[in-house]
Amino acid sequence: MQSFMHTPLTLQSKLPSVGTTIFTVMSALAAEYKAINLGQGFPDFPMSGELTDLVSKAMRDGFNQYVHGNGYLPLREAIAGKVQYLYGTELSADSQITITPGGTYALFTAFATLLQPGDEVIVFEPAYDCYIPQIELMGAKAVTINLVFPDYRINWEAVKEAIHERTRAIVINTPHNPTGAVWSAADMKQLEDIVQNTQIAIISDEVYEHLIFDGLPHESILKYPALRERAFACFSFGKVYHCTGWKMGYCIAPADLMSEFRKIHQFNVFTCDTPKQVALAEFLKDRQQYTGLGAFLQQKRDYFQQLMAQTRFRPLPSHGSYFQLYAYEAISGEPEKDFAVRVTKEAGVATIPVSAFYRQPVDNGVLRFCFAKKEETLEAAVERLKGM
Ligand SMILES: Cc1ncc(COP(=O)(O)O)c(C=O)c1O
User: pTM for this structure?
Assistant: First the structure.
């Protein structure tokens, strides 16, 4: 018998600076201490039974094989109709919309389509955690700009200073994870002025498009002709229909950009879950399902705030998303991560320290709470937090 030398396989990490994230740490800790998890951003209430029935029906009706790689055409047409209704923008379902397995995948493919090694991308921090690793996987560099604490607005002067010939894209996210800040029309105008006559693209993360409160309008990039002609806009059905585990979303871009996006998409996932696309095409016809979402979540935000008034945590404004930040200077001067760990262990409530959304060491003494939970979950969590 031939014997082989044992040669362990080695590889060079594509993401050497990514270790165990705070999200993994907090989830493990939450499980260990049986904590109520207000850390992770997902609803604990059920999704629509009508929509799950539509998926079962689609399966029974035989929609179980590959659909077109760009997505089930009636779904793309329903999205085009929705965009026309909401933002007054006409889109081609044929050439400008692609169905993707979630918003994160849409973002990844947009970066892959756009970026060459050495390109620079402006990212506002705190930032949803996938942007920077995705940019770096493409051999490009993320240039971070801090949002201005405590209202997390954009420092437009800093943006102007950060731009130079290698700048290839700016990532925007409104309503914003983790802060709940939302962009105004004036912000969009600033962005328009900055990118005009440049080769800078916009990656617009709009997964919380309907989760917006206090009567504020969602400033979609799709409303702005001069911006949408250079943008990949990324959306998630998971956030809209309380089914984050479905991982269904879509990307919208001008036809020439989308044609390049599709070249990458077709050799990656190629096509997405058929029965869910068939079901969503039907469900999208019911506008109330998404137009009523802001009011539904605003009620949760308000209820959570009302309960939290019994604690020593201090709310920062949240105008959208699933999240509200709370400052804890009245309780402790500890760094965010240490304090979040202690709250999990001592009070039995898991949260996310906002410092986890920065690459730079920024610590403002604030934690992120997810209020997209049943009332009894919020009540039980606050009961525990009263002791802090
Ligand atoms: C800002 C932001 N973008 C994108 C996503 C990802 O959406 P999906 O679950 O559809 O990939 C999330 C999910 O938490 C998010 O918070």
Answer: 0.96
